Amino acid sequence: MNEKQYIAYKGEEFTVEWYFQEHGQSLALEFYQRLEVDHRKKLLFLLKRMGDSGKISDRTKFTYEGDQIYAFKPQPERFLCFFIKGQKIIITNGFTKKQQKLPKNEKEKALKFKESYQQRVKEGVYYE
Length: 128
Description:
The structure is a single chain. This protein is α+β, with helices and mostly antiparallel strands. It has three helices and six strands. It has helices at 27-34, 37-53, 104-122; strands spanning 7-10, 15-18, 62-66, 69-72, 77-84, 88-96. The protein has a six-stranded mixed β-sheet. A hairpin with a 4-residue loop joins strand 4 (69-72) and strand 5. The longest helix has 19 residues, at 104-122. The model has no long low-confidence stretch (mean pLDDT 94).
């Protein structure tokens, strides 16, 4: 198995990481890799801004979705994430926006992955 590439961007304020499931799959990273280059650049621009300055004040680019879940919004895609102590942001999943509201199943996935991440880190089994 290839070594997991956890870090999406490392900045002065935050390190942004891809979330990996127990079996080594990262839905967010796989979604990102399927995007066209110009769409990938949009996300990388937002990750760099957040990582280096610690904030994105433009709500059309980054918003709070409730339940400690946030969204990077490099139109038309969304990448859900959460913050953890130690100045980290974990990107859980990505999808193409097709409606005004955040799809319930995408938020549920992000919450499930957040819980899994926290439990596996606590057990010392997340990072290899």
